[in-house]
Amino acid sequence: MLFQTPEFLVLFAVVALAIVFVKDLRWQHGVLLVASLIFYGWWDVRFLVLLIASTALDYIAARGVAGHAFSWRSHWNAALWLAVSGIVLMWPNWPLMQLQQQWDAWPQLLTSHWTGMHAAVVACLTGAIIWPLLARWFYTLSEVNRRRGFLIASMATNLGMLAFFKYYGFFVDNMRGIGTWLGYSWNPPLLNVALPVGISFYTFQTMSYTIDVYRGHEPAEKSLGRVALFVAYFPQLVAGPILRPGQFMPKLDQPWTLESGRYLSGFHLALVGLVKKVLIADSMARLVDILLGSPDGRPSLMIMLGALLFAVQIYCDFSGYTDIARGVSRILGVEIPLNFAHPYFSTSVVEFWRRWHISLSTWLRDYLYIPLGGNRGSTLRTYFNLMVTMVLGGLWHGAAWNFVIWGAYQGALLCANRLLREWIAPTSRLALLCEHPLGCLVRWSATLYLTLLGWLIFRVNSAENLWYAVKKFIVFDGRWELFGLGAGVGAPFTALLALLVFVVLHAYGHFFRRWPEQLDVLPRPLLFGLYALLGALLFYGWPTHQEPFIYFQF
Amino acid sequence: MAPRFVWNLAASIGFPLGGAAAAAALLSAVILPRIQLGDVERIRQLARHVTGEPLSGSTVIFLGNSITMEGLDTSQLGVGQPDWQAENYAITGCGLSEYRIILPKLLKRNPVCVVLAFDPMTLQGAADIPADKAFAYAMAGFVEDWPASWTADDFPGLDRATYDILRSNYMRQLLHFRTAPLIWINYRSRAAVRGDLRTDSSYEWRAPYTMLESVDQGRTQFQLRALAERYRQASPIPSAGGVDLLRRTCILVRDSGARLVFVMTPVHPDVRTVASPLLEGTRQTLREMSAEYGGVLLEADGVLESSEFADSVHPNEAGRRIYSELIGRQVFQTLESTLESPQSPAAVSR
User: Which domain holds residue A205?
Assistant: First the structure.
């Protein structure tokens, strides 16, 4: 279910009414959980099984880490749930159903010869048997080993699910290629497994819950419902921001209410997000597809324009989604932390990563970079840790080589940034020059240029096209042609107009006051006039073809 | 709930909705009737142009895509033929499905002859009609002249969603064209930036060309490479759906009493070789259709030189003059001569 659809408005209205009229906390949680599951299941009801299985496993793991003993009955209930969910998930031959839009494929189940289905069912049944046995065994170990055992089992299961649903096809493709290159013929089945929406987000969120319990930062929740609501909380379920237990769990102890001031503030945040998504990001989508979808033969100027437009598109698309998520959540009373802080005004790559997708970069820092050793070891080890973190961060975005290259590129930039900081003494003339306004301008320009090059790698997903586009981006070919823009398709001038509007509004928001807060303090007559104006602009700008949020695919 | 909360809630929903409603009213009453939207406007103007009294004289109408639009100046057709007049109703991207959408309304004007243009790709099937154009046909009222019995099955190859658009109501059409102001900005800016375009040819039924200059060599070469690749990937055999659609169109024209003429439009010499299997397939099919439905085939695919093209597909001013004269001569000659032997195809030469 998308935020900008009528279905969502209905769902949200029902939730809001329930919050107003239902006073019991547990019932409020129940309504929110059901609404979250409907929100997620709207894409494909089978995805729900995976979400619930993931939640249940981490609930059990966290309880195990905390030392709570389960009865055999509880274990077998969980095992039964896992087995049933595995069968429901896998038996209907997922890929076939996905291709043929679900129910049409049911009659073919009996005649299907998809070998992967049998393997997957066996894997789920094995998991269902092994998990209770493992859990029993962990309780026979020392406390340290029991805690570690539950943590490892949780990580293995979460990462295993992520690996299967997100990376299996990528892995098999590459294995086949390597096999052919070495002269061997290896043909594991290509399953064409559908990617469950938001799996990367909620897997990281459930993992953070178990890890935080293991570290003693959070208590293990007694209620499965509370853990389920933490994982499935609908405003941020499919594209983040990735929440930590400490940011959400305390809210579950307080009653949910709707308040007038908070309502308007949340509405303004969501409105700004909607404007970013609909009027800016979607206005650029078609032109970006034309320029970077097939960059071959295009001059440097158009490749650069494509990279610039994509940078704005992905920012407005993702931060727009985040703003809507934060706004909706604020109305409900949960403050989701800021995920973007004007990243294109960064004057270094390190600063960029402190401002871009903050919930992911801090997650990677806290749960990957620091456990790897962070910057506590040798210089070489620090660079290694940085590279591993960023390559895995790149791979988190998708199963394709351009994401791996993008991650490695970002890692290399962070290493270079660190090297430069160590090389330039803080009191040297060069350091002082860097802090001068002119120096800041140079640093900002260089950071923006490197960021745009990064987005080019991110967006162009075929090897030949990527090489061509990067060459054209780095070495200007002197061709001042923009004839592709005159083709009449891609609405080039509205895209450029949206770019101009974005630059002005974004700069204003950065140097003065963030737009949602600006709206909060506007005098009422002006504010209501602005509502009407934005209503009219959204009417005219609402694209005839609705573009999905880019980060849904991750 | 506190009154203040209710007031805030009502304001946050009411004012944006009010703004959107005002925008819709403005769109319906002021914007759409006034602004020009390229192809969409041409479709709308065509409907207005052909609605009304039947033609009194002997009128030949030309249907085709942008090659016909750019390449045919009908004021040069009727030289020495004072009793005849010709009008060019070509629309950018117009293919077999669109011929079928348009023709019932056009045939009500009783033209003596309908000339259908074909490029190497026309018979590849019912090309998708962009939503903008489909809504424009619906809004212009072409659908109102369709025979009552027509259903989606009468448009083989046309996807169901497009058919539903063609049958859509005014509210749906209005909502679709809500982006008209943005499209208008795009068209106007494009015309301002590109000096080789004119955009006000929507009302022009004799010489509706828009390109005022030839594009540069680099761009033409880029287009030719893309075009060659497209031709290379296409099947040389016309699609069954395309042939079916053509057959239905032929029957429609024949039953109206109008003469039917097929024209194979000029192909750039640099891609003629790679297009030859497609051209052969098209030629063969059109010959069969001519024989079956009493039409005439004019093969003009090889009549222009490279220097007579404005880009990879469209004739320039010189090409337009040559092509128009040749087609005019052949159409009027064959119209008279084929009264006795309607099957004879004519190879157009300079």
Answer: 44-235
